[in-house]
Amino acid sequence: MIKRLFALLAAIVFVPIATAAPAMAYEPVNIVHTEHVQVGPYGLTVGFSTWPLRAMQSLDFTFAPDGGLDGKTGTFMRTGPSGSHTRPASMVRHPRKRDVWGLDVFALPVEGPWKFDFTIDGPQGHGTGTLSGLQVLPQPGPPLTLSWIVCALPFVALIGFLVVVWRRGNPGRIRASGVPTGVAAG
Amino acid sequence: MIGTSWDVQWHIDVGPDTFFTLPHLFIYAGSAIAGIAALSVVLAVTAAQRRGETPDPRDGGVPIRVFGGAFTAPLGYLVTGVGAAAFLLYGLTDLWWHTVYGFDAVLNSPPHVALFTTISITMIGAVIVAASARELLWGRIAMAISVPVLMTFFPITANAFQGLPVPFDSIVVATALIIVLLLVLTRVAIGRPGTALATAAALLVMQGILWVFTPWATSLYADSVGLPMRDGMGGEPSLIPSGIPLAGIVAALVIELLFRRGALISGGVAGLILGFTFVLQRPWLGYAAPVTTVELIATTIAGCAFGVVGAFLGLRFGATLRLREKVTA
After folding, report:
1. Comparing C-alpha atoms, which of B198, B174, B172, B321 is closest to residue B255?
2. For A96-100, A138-142, A159-163, B34-38, which range has the lowest pLDDT when averaged over its residues?
3. What values do phi and psi take at A68, rounded to 5?
4. Burial degree of B235 (CB within 10 A; 0-12, 13-18, 19+)
5. Contact A166 B117 (CB under 8 A)
6. CA–CA dist A121, B259 (Å, integer)
7. Could you tell me the pLDDT band of residue A4, with boundaries at 50, 70 and 90?
8. Cβ contact A150–B259 (<8 Å)
9. Transmembrane stretches, by residue range (chain A) (predicted)?
10. Which pLDDT belongs to residue A125?
11. Residue % of chain B over a pLDDT of 70
């Protein structure tokens, strides 16, 4: 009986998984807004899949140099509203749009003005350029504190459970119940 | 047996959660199976109780009366079931979160931290189930599998504390605390020399399997959905297996050797070793910025202190796992 029950459960869980795999095609990159940046001798089109930008909301970024990627390498550095910035990272092709560079499902974490610094090396030499004043609006959804409080509940419950277990496991009680600890504690 | 089968399931879960969709389904399937299994057992035990049979605490731990005695639930299955139910609830929260914020793959978003906590709760239930069958071979095997799985998973929750202004590496120290706690707990709960070492050996084997499996499964799955692997990737070992201290086996050896002289001392030394080696392991494998000398010293000392705390907690929780009296809640 139990065996049959488990076979049934396994079927309920695994059949959808086995048949769902081919249906998981990925969405194309849909650019709804672009900005133009002059990076030395190279023109660069920065594309956004969502506009305007909001803090913590992820989107696709594309970086398309005029004339394609052939023979070019580049770096990208982002600076947040507080002035702290990342290390310059090499440009990589967008995983779902292989003819341009990009970042897939990426979020800028805080609201305020952001700045992107680019460098490109290619047939016409080295170039640098900046996209500044990229305005990021406040985060959508409920306040972050509220989200954290709701999501901390399991952790609080776990601590509560452990405290109860701890109190039940006081040494007097363990000795009284005749459980051999088998060790000389501490 | 049910415990073992979950543990194998959890095994599958821990590996693939650094990438998307199909692995994601595996995680949900793991919790669903654990939850349904726990519910089935609780119903079966309740039915047996109504027939006038006395529940055997070896089947999943101390029986607990819930809802004023409407159900009789062995503690381990109760904890697992509650964890799995909460997991599915927070799964919905996560779904909503992603519709608001998109699919940026971060470990420490609020719903993700809640999900990791609920999975850990489910796994704690599995450990209780395993420990309550310690006289039986399957119980000890389930213990040797479920404890390393919990060791791997529980410290992920420490990502939530990453921003704390402390001089030491909070993830390293949390990992050292959990590992020492669970090694000591296993040693006390099973009550046989060598069990901590066996657990650490199982952890090492699991790490090895994940090390090989994760990149293989990732590239296989990427191929099957027609996605290329990212540019500029390659070389680094996978995130989850890299996040397991390689020196776990050394820590277990120390605990085995020093245990009878004093469990707290053994925990402190094990924590010291874990703190020192793990804080170096993370940058070595490319998952953290290089450590400064101050960080290295602070993390080693903190690892030692938290190792003592871990041993202290492990002693009492391990002894509590051996209790078999009936409880009314």
Report:
1. B198
2. B34-38
3. 85, 180
4. exposed
5. no
6. 61
7. low
8. no
9. 146-166
10. 92
11. 77
Distance from CA of A147 to the nearest CA of B (A): 6
Is A45 in the B-facing interface, judged by CB distances under 8 Å? no
B145 Cα distance to chain centroid: 10
B227–A26 CB contact, under 8 Å = yes
Whether residue B317 has pLDDT greater than 60: yes
Helix ranges (H only) for chain B are: 2-14, 22-50, 75-101, 110-132, 137-153, 170-190, 195-224, 239-242, 248-258, 263-284, 293-321
Residue B159 DSSP one-character state: G
Q: Which residues of A touch B259 (CB under 8 A)?
A: 183
Report chain A residues whose CB lies below 8 A from the CB of B33: 9-10, 13
A24 at B interface, C-beta within 8 A: yes
Inter-chain contact B224–A21, Cβ cutoff 8 Å?
yes
Contact A180 B114 (CB under 8 A): no
In this complex, do A154 and B260 lie within 8 Å of one another by their Cβ atoms? no
Q: How much is the ipTM here?
A: 0.80
- How many cross-chain Cβ pairs, A to B, lie less than 8 Å apart? 150
Q: Which residue of B has its CA nearest to A100?
A: B231
Q: Which pTM does this prediction carry?
A: 0.78
Judged against a pLDDT cut of 60, whether residue A182 lies above it is answered with no
The span from the CA of A54 to the CA of B299, in Å, is: 37
Q: At what angle do helices B293-321 and A144-168 cross, to 10 degrees?
A: 50
Paired residues of A102 in beta bridges: A62
pLDDT at A177 over 70: no
**Interior CA angle at B148 toward B143 and B151, to 5°?**
125
Answer for the pair B126, B14: CB distance below 8 angstroms, yes or no.
no
Neighboring chain B residues of A185 at a CB cutoff of 8 Å: 263, 315
Share of chain B above pLDDT 90, in %: 7
Q: What is the pLDDT of residues B240-285, one digit of tens each?
A: 777 788 888 888 898 888 888 888 988 889 898 888 888 888 878 7
pLDDT of residue B30: 73
Least CB-CB distance to B319: which of A92, A107, A174? A174
For residue B119, give the 3-state DSSP assignment. Answer: helix
**HEC readout, B58-73:** CCCCCEEEECCCCEEE
Distance CA B3, CA B97 (A): 32
Give residue-wise pLDDT tens across range B161-219: 666 777 888 888 888 999 999 999 999 888 888 888 888 888 888 888 777 777 666 66
Q: Is A163 on the interface with B (CB under 8 A)?
A: no
